[in-house]
Each structure stands twice: as C-alpha cells, then as structure tokens.
Fold each of these.
Amino acid sequence: MTLSFAHAESKTTLTLKSVFTSPNASVCLGDLVQLQGMAAREVEKLNRYCRIELKGERTILNAKEIELHAWAAGVIPEKISGSQITITRGAIPIGEVLAHAPVTDAPKPSQRIRRGSTVKLFLKSAHIQIARDAVILMDAFPGETIDVRISGTRKNLRARLVNGEAAELVQ
C-alpha cells in the first residue's frame, strides 16, 4: 500500500519573539511568532488559535511547546527559530503598542475564497482554451492549489486559484 500526500503544505518557519506582554489570561499563537513572509492561510490559523493559557504573571514557553500549539492550530512548522518566549501578564507599555502598530503600507493578506464558491476553471494550451464552471471544495487564498469540482459532474480536479473568479487546471 502506497500513501501519497498530494495536499502537502509549503514549508513553514516559525520565528519566536523573545518577549510578549498580554493583558489577557489567554494568548493567541499569532501574537508569539513573527508573521512576516508566511502564507495567508498559515497566518489565519495562527491568529485563530487562542488557547494558550497564562499561569501566573510570567510564563515561559520553549520551542517544543510552541511547536505542539502550532500542530494543534493546523500548522506544521519545518523549523522554529528561537529557543523560548517569555510572556508577562499585565498592561502593555505604550512603547510596545507603538512598536506593534500596523504599518499602513504593509501588504494585506489576500481575500479568502469560501468553499462552495463558483469559479471559471481554465485549461490553456498553445492552440486551445477551455473554460468551465467549477465549485471550490475548500476555503482557499489566491495562489493556492486546491480541489475543484466541475459543475454538473462528480469529477474533482486540482487547480491553482488565480483569484475569486478564476482558477487554472494543474497538469
């Protein structure tokens, strides 16, 4: 029996911040790692995983604990930079608030396209172009390779999502 993993994710590197201050008793994983250069889907998973409970005024998490939380969030890191992060509970200093304020010219993550959305599926060659309606079978961001189902059939195909309206067949 041979197993094939056609849906393999791209390699993810998590870079731990050295310190973090939280006013809350629980922290999101996205607050503890640097998110620059990560895929939008991975960033969303890290920001949604808010199950890290702080015990006391100061908590230290090592890279292995962060890796376990990442796995629970659905992100499988290839590498983790940094050995530990120190999380303190209390008010965030004004300097830290300004340091983490969003930069207006920073690129924003692409819009997520929901499962069930209809797109035009294109097959292009040197001599012909075919377009069919297809339904997206999973939530995705532009640029990702996903499964789509051709409308009116039970045929599933792999396609690269170009935007919210078009996808290209992967050969």
Amino acid sequence: MALRSASRLLNSRFINQLHKRNYADEMSFTFAAGNKVFYDSQAVRQVDVPSFSGAFGILPKHVPTIAVLKPGVVSVFENDGNVKKVFVSSGTVTINEDSSVQVLAEEAAPVESLDISAAREALSKAQSQLSSASTDRAKAEAAIAVEVAEAIVKAAE
C-alpha cells in the first residue's frame, strides 16, 4: 500500500514537473568568440553543441551544466524558426539555473563562410606536421590541428 502511494506521489510530481518544464519557453543565450559576438543575451528556443562528453541539445530549463566544447558546429534554433550554424574550434558552454546559456568559443565562424578547399589544405598540412613531429609537444599540437581541420572539413561539406 505504501509503495502504491509513493508511486502515485512520484507520478504526480513527475507530471507537475512536466507541466512546469514548458519547452516552448525561451532561454537567454549569449555566444561569443575572440573575434565576434554572435548572440548577446538573445532569446532562443534551443542550442545544440559539440562536447567532448558527446554532442547535446540545450532546451529551456536544462539542468545546470558546464562543458568543454570540441571542434564542431553549434546550431542555434531561433524563435522565428531559423537555424544558425557556427563552427567553433573549442571553448566552453555554461548552462545556468535561470535558463541562461553562455557559449564562449576560442575561435568561431559561420558555417556558410567556411572555405572547403582551404579547410582541406589545412588538414593536409596538419597531417603532414603530425607525421613529421619529433617531440611530444609538436605531436600534441599537430594532433589538435588535425582534429580541428577534420571538423572544419566536415562542417564545410
């Protein structure tokens, strides 16, 4: 009997949480890099980010989180239905309890501005540097350059 009551209590709490988590709500979004501010506390519906723990989507009322960005595409779903895609080389994402989200990228560029031939050339150069690297530091730096260049090529295709 007590188990049944607890089950009903948990179910009603769960249902109340679902009603409180109205995913049509907006969240305040800030997205900046050293070279540009893309969003400055603007309201958006959803943000998808590439992370070393796996790519994930952020909706309003997301659990507070701090994550490290890996090279890839941040997709921003704006309230008017548009989706903006921005390539990031690295950075951080912070999701706050008040539903505000900040993405701080080391470097970032709109996907439509990426040059596929330049990206392939950078990848080839980085792979060459990796194969000829003689110190641990040079190998690590070249491996990072390869990872970023591969992500740029993928984003530009």
Amino acid sequence: MGAEPAHGPDHTDDRPTWLRRFGRLSRRRRLAWGGAALALALGSTAVTAQATGTWPFDKDRYCWGAWKQDSGPRLLGDAVLQRTDSERSGTASDVPSPDRPQGKCSVVMTSEVPDDHGGHTGTGTEQYGEEAGEAQETLTFESRVTVEFGPVPRKAAERRKWLAGFLDASAVPLPDGVPGVVAGNRGMVVLPKACDVDGRPSAVTLAGGETGDGHLGVVEMPFTVGSRSEVARLMLAVAEKGMKSVGCAPEEPYRVTSPVAATSGDADGVREDFTACRIPGQRFDVGKFGGLAVQRGPVTDRMQTCSLTLRSRGTAPTPAGQFVMVREPRLVALFHGLTGERAPGPDWRGKGELKAGHQVVRADCAGHPTVFFQQLDETLRAAARPSPERVFARSANEVAARIGCAAVAP
C-alpha cells in the first residue's frame, strides 16, 4: 500500500478551471469574490451548465468521488472554512482498477491563525495588535486525512509495523460483521477474499495527523478525524468505490448500522509486581524502565488487543509492545505469510515463529483458525519475565483458555 502519484482534487463534473479553483478559495476570499463570480457564473457559464447538467456551485468531491463536501466530519464541513485564511484541498492517485488494484487519496485543511505570542514592531516601543501597525506572526496548521486502498505490505517487517499501527488497543472492532477496526484518528477494513493480490489480503486504511508551524517550530500533533462512526463511514465509502472499480465488490456491500463501541478498554497503571494487559502471563520487571502505560483493547471471543507504551519525562511516549489475538477470518488473513510452515518450537501446536522481537502462532481453536501475536521492543524484551518467549507462551495459553481453546504452547 505504497505512495501513488498525486493528482488534483476529485470532481465529477466538467466545470471550468477557474470555477474549480474558486471552490477551493478560503471562505473569506469566496465572500469577497462572491458578487462578481455569481454574475459571471450566471452569465458566461449558463450554456456550460446546461450542456453538462452541472451547477456552478456543486460541492467538491474527494477520494474518487467517495466523499463529498459538507457530508461528514468537520474536515469536510463548510464550518472550517469560516476561519481566516482556511483552505481545503484534495489529492488522489488514479482510481484503483483491475490492472492496478491500489490507490491513495488525501484531504488537507490548511489554516492560519494569529500567534498571541508574536513579536513587536521593532521600533523600540512595544505595540501589540494589527491596529498598532504590528506585523503579527501567525501559526499555520495542516490537518491531513490519508486513505490507502490496496494489498497489505509484502515484506514481513513492513507488515508487522503496519499491524502495530492499526491493531493498536485504542481501536475497536467494527460492528455488523465488518472485518476491521476503527479509532477517532485512524481505521482499517479488510476487503473480501476476491480482492486479494498475490495471496495477500487488500484493505482500506485511514490515518489522520496534524502539523503546527509557528515561532516555536514544527510540532506534530494527533488529529481526530471524527467520531468512530464517522471514520467508519468514510472508510466504507472508499472501500465501496474502490471495490467496484477493481471488480471485486461483494453482492452485499459492507455496511455499519449498529453503534460503534465508544471505548476500547481501560488503561492500567504500573505496579511493583506488574502483570500487563490483565493477562497473568504478561509479566515485566518494572524496575527496568521509567514509566509504562498499558492500554487494554477489546476483549471478545474474536479479538483481544493490548498496547504498551514507554513514558519518560521530557520525551514523547514511545510504543513498545503489543499483544493481539484474532480469529475473525479476514483479520486472521492479515497474518498470512508471517507464521511460516512449521511449529514455532517443540510441543507447540500450530505454525509460527519465535524471534527476538516478535512471536506469532496460528492454530485451530474449536474449529476456527486463530492467531496469537506479540511484539516487544528492546527495553521490554529485557524486562520480560522470565523471557519474551515464555511471556508469549503463557499469554497465548491464558487467552486460549478464555475463548475455550486448547493450549497452544508447552
């Protein structure tokens, strides 16, 4: 699911170039141009509108027409354009096709706001505000939502990194049998088997981020795209558009009509005798590191996730560990090619591997293929008791017992 060449914003009509650019102006500039543009539109473009069946002020569309202006989260709404010097734009690769079943699109909102901590006029007398003649500094914010359609990464290391980003414990499962997960700032939905490419499942992923650029420099910040239900609808709209274009759409389209869970789980504090994720097998010596935050994700018969994050004073939180159990068929498919063709060790059940930084096993659990997966960074590997492999073995057996499955590890 790599980067694709970018093109201009998506439009489904044949409006003149000047009019498409007008649609992307800031709200303030739109108002300034409104009277003249209206007269021009009603006059010189009347014939064009009649011929094409479009109206000069049709709403902008993004992501190959899957999203429409003012039809979802605030990023697509008109209200954000009320800000001073705010602009929204979109880019998209070619629409996915049978010959090229992958694509990438994005929507970007750029806003400039006055910086309350701006400088002075340099005259020796500090005068604040534009009325005093000050060249007031501004802060520039860029909010971006990026969606990718296509097969999951081929290389094992890239796939594990991809899994860490989307099977994070802050995400919750999509309801109504739709295979995927969603959070406020990202989500993933696995497409039907008919959309597989070279044995790898295809997926639609969504990720949001925000960058602030001011007198203190560039700062990366989290960006909440919308509610989990809104993010789910955005993903499924792109999934439906892409699958139809590729020719792998199911007879019954993916739909989410039930409420999406409001939260994924609870955060645990650090204790002297620390058992992470409320799984007895997840034991770490907390004296080996500064701070550890644990986020428990969903705990169901089809999925269980837990994420561990290192926190040190003066530094940004660092993802350090992950434990996952899945037995939803299309989520299990995400691990195809990662488990190998042999048992991970003597007396283990199923197929998998036990490596320094990750452990994985796929086994039958009451007639359902089930995957148990763990990733630990160097710090947590050193703190695992008695070892990363035994932590994984005990954790997998504990979760297997919870879902009525025979032990997978000796």
